[in-house]
Structure formats: C-alpha cells, structure tokens
Design goal:
The protein is of the alpha+beta class. The protein has two domains: about 70 residues, no CATH class; about 170 residues, 3-Layer(aba) Sandwich (YojJ-like (1). Helix content is about 45%, strand content about 10%. The chain contains twelve helices and seven strands. It has a seven-stranded mixed β-sheet with strand order 2-4-3-1-5-6-7, with helices on both faces.
Length: about 290
C-alpha cells in the first residue's frame, strides 16, 4: 500500500535488518542505564544531556550568544564522558565479556573449598570477628592481590581464623581466594560510590560491594559489631545470611547445585542477589575499621 503522507513516505521500510538494528541499540542503551542507575554517574549523565539539549534549542531558536558559548563546550563532551565514566565503561565491557552468549564463553571452575570457608565464617560470626573474604571467578584480581601480603596457601578453616585474629597484622583488609587457594591477605579494595550504601555501611561492607561492582567475584563479610554474615555480588548486598544460605549462594555463584550433584543453571555475577524481606540496615561506618 503506497504511502500518501509525505512524512510517512520519508520513513525507511521496516525490514528484518531495521528491527535487529533497533533491538541492538535498545539493548546498549538499557545496559548503559543499568550501569549508571543509582550512582553519581547518573546525575553527571543527566547534566550532559541537558547541556546538549540547550545547544540544540539555542541553534533552533537562533540564540547566537548561547550557541557560541556552548559551541566551545559541546565538542569536548565525548572526551569528558570517557574521563568521567571510565569506571562505568570498564564495568560494562567486563559485564558484556563475561556473559555466556549462545552457550559460549568462559567456563569457570566450581569452588572446592566451600566447606572450609563456611566453617571459618561460622566461627568468626559466633565470636563477632570482622572478616572479608573475596572469591575470584572469571575476572582476575591480580591488581588487588598485589596490594596485600602474598600467601599462596591452601584454604583451611584454621588458616582463615588465624588471618582474621584480632590484633594480628593481617586482620585488617581482605583475603582473596584464587583457584581454591588463598592468594593474599590484608588486601585493599575499592569502596563503592553508590549513594544507597554510602551512609548505611561500614568500610568493610562498602569494600565488599565495591569490588563486586568492578569484577564478577563474590564477597563474604562478617560484621565485627553484630556478627551478621553478608554476601555481595554484582554491586548488591544480601545481609543476615545463615550458614546454609551462604553455602547455597556460593555454590550457585560458581555453578554448582550441591544437593543434586549436577551442575546448576548459571548464576551471573551481574545479577542482583535476592534481598530477604526482613533485611535490616547494616551497621554504621563509625564502628568498622579504617581498612576494608
């Protein structure tokens, strides 16, 4: 049927290629919005968008003075976006790279030392000893390993308890686990900049969330004030876990369903953890140590 309307006649035909093109663009826009949602980057992006709209309005309305001023700023917005959003861009590329497209992608190994970790966490929680254990998955944590004390030791309950013993040099900071071995202790981790967590969590919990925002690792946290066990993945935090729930979440994250012995459905690290209905706020930052 011919298009009688001139406007409709100027539109391209909607074929399969156009539909695929629209879906890909929509997916990229959605991923970008999910990355900056709830962060400072969202406000920065909104400010840049307003500046572009002001420039378009100035050109359309013939406001030469405003257009001249904005013409010196708009060309540098591309460089400003790269500088201001470097962490968000890095996180998005890492998220796209670790997805298993059409069944392809990295095949991570199940963690074989879950029992040792959960036994240590249970003991630490019962004595209200603060601890932060980071479990590496696909994305390497070498940069953060080098910030701490190298150990390269086999995981054991006793070793973890010794590391987090209050008063010892390795107590502060995070333990990083790679391939069922403790790679390093007393490691420094990046703190989350998400305003949702900034005023509610202590330094240890914010570090646990921060490292999962940049990588696909899993962070186990024990509060030194309440003994509450928390788990961070994909920039989200689940608090008040039992040992059974902790073991289940770790197995799911590494693709293992222990009850059936069969490999479980993939549990992507960029998906939010299920928050319990009775979740309570974490402890305030004043009670945590200065280091993660």
């Amino acid at each position: 049927m011919p298009r009688s309307n001139p406007f409709l006649a100027s539109l391209p035909n909607l074929d399969v290629t156009a539909v695929v093109d629209i879906l890909v663009v929509a997916f990229l826009v959605y991923e970008a919005l999910m990355v900056v949602r709830g962060t400072r980057a969202g406000h920065i992006l909104l400010g840049i968008l307003f500046m572009v709209l002001f420039y378009v309005a100035a050109v359309w309305a013939g406001l030469e003075a405003l257009r001249s001023v904005l013409s010196f700023i708009v060309p540098y917005l591309g460089l400003a976006i790269i500088v201001l959003f470097q962490s968000e861009i890095r996180r998005t590329l890492a998220r796209l790279g670790r997805k298993r497209w059409f069944g392809l992608g990295s095949d991570y190994r199940p963690l074989a030392s879950v029992d040792e970790i959960t036994m240590a966490v249970e003991e630490l929680a019962s004595h209200k000893t603060g601890a932060l254990i980071v479990l590496e998955r696909d994305i390497g944590l070498r940069t953060f390993v080098e910030s701490g004390v190298r150990l390269d030791a086999r995981i054991s309950r006793d070793l973890l308890l010794s590391i987090f013993q209050v008063g010892l040099p390795l107590h502060d900071g995070a333990v990083i686990v790679q391939n069922d071995r403790i790679a390093a202790a007393a490691c420094f981790l990046p703190l989350t900049t998400n305003p949702v967590f900034r005023n509610e969590l202590g330094t240890r919990h914010r570090a646990a969330v921060g490292i999962t925002e940049e990588t696909d690792c899993l962070s186990v946290v024990v509060s030194e004030e309440t003994g509450r066990i928390s788990l961070a993945a994909g920039g989200d935090l689940k608090q008040g876990l039992s040992i059974a729930e902790l073991e289940r979440q770790i197995n799911l994250h590494f693709g293992v369903r222990k009850t059936s012995g069969a490999r479980a459905e993939e549990f992507p690290a960029d998906l939010a953890l299920e928050a319990p209905a009775d979740a309570v706020h974490a402890e305030r930052g004043s009670g945590e140590d200065g280091r993660p």
